[in-house]
UniProtKB/TrEMBL annotation:
Pfam families in alphabetical order: Phage_AlpA
Name of the protein in question: Prophage regulatory protein
Length: 64
């Protein structure tokens, strides 16, 4: 298990910081954990699971 800060999440997902937080507010993106006060980080498994779901949805649309 690895923890990723927002900069790394931006790089992995190609989403901007504001888009990530907008998706979190809409309950469409994993919420960060707070390992210490004022620190937000995401579990690697949560980010990769989200990416897999996005890929699967895209593939389903392509097949329809």
């Amino acid at each position: 298990m690895r923890l990723y800060r927002i900069k790394h999440v931006n790089e992995i997902t190609a989403l901007s910081r504001s888009t990530i937080y907008r998706l979190i507010a809409a309950k469409k993106f994993p919420r960060p954990i707070h390992p210490s006060p004022g620190t937000a980080a995401w579990l690697d498994q949560d980010i990769y699971a989200w990416l897999d779901r996005q890929r699967n949805q895209h593939q389903q649309k392509q097949q329809a």
